[in-house]
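Chapter summary example.
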Amino acid sequence: CASRLGRRPAWVVASLGFIDRSFGRGFCVVAMSPVIMYFFATGARQRRASIAYLRRVWRFSGRHGRPGLWASLKHFFAFGESLVDRFGAWIGHVDRANVDAIDGEDFHAMREDRRGTLILSAHVGDTEIVRAIASRYQKRPISIVIHSPHAAGYNRLIRRFAPQSQISLIEAAEFDVSAAMRVSAAIERGEWVVMMGDRMPVRADGRSITVDFLGAPARFPQGPFVMAAALRCPVYTLFCVRGKGRYRAEVAKLSDGVSAPKSQRQAALSALVESYARALERLLQGAPYQWFNFYDYWADLGDGGARGRDRIN
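The structure predicted for these 313 residues follows.
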């Protein structure tokens, strides 16, 4: 993750797990407040990116007003709460009864299909909740591809706090041939493999596909969508956001898993990214504070003058 907020060593997650298990979610959120305030006060670049993103969502959605520092602070705190909810889900503190739409038609179809499934998610809301619940109730192994050097530490913590969990993490600092082989092997074993489709990998020269997103061209990582087009397995999108003390899951089929001929591969990739971007746009219009992006997503492509309008005063 490009932002300091995204660099979470395993001991931070372990501390959250201990506080959540011992004192509950509310106390855990309060305990995190000074940390969130510190990052908000010292992270000028992250604040600017947060405000610019929120202003873009406001314009795209036709909302009134112009988000500023207060809206950005809410954005930072929403991220902090998501960390608490994330580990709470892994250790069993969130039940499926707390999640609306988890038993919807598309989720039911994904759950009943015994083939391996590729799930494209995003750095949004509380998606780990749906993954953790699915793991506990369906006993379906779930592998999550993360761009972090801490995957081994996180796996140890999951085994420590929730030994019954079927979730494991696959480290992929960049989506190379090795990572693709591990994803393919997990699919062959009948697992659910979750990949984030909204964040470029660590390397600056990572391959990307550009589509319009929230009113301007944006780069999306090519790797997850190459896998989606190449693997002969169903592909779904999965998002989960929190609101009024409950969680809302959104699961939708993106592809039936039919590989496109080589001559049509680029068109198929572009269509997949377009469908993914439109699904993410719809979600963010209703839950703008729950996309945890704290860097300038549109910086290197231009956006028809919107950057000038988004200058933070």
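To summarize the output: Strands lie at 99-100, 117-121, 142-146, 167-171, 192-196, 208-213, 216-221, 235-243, 246-255.
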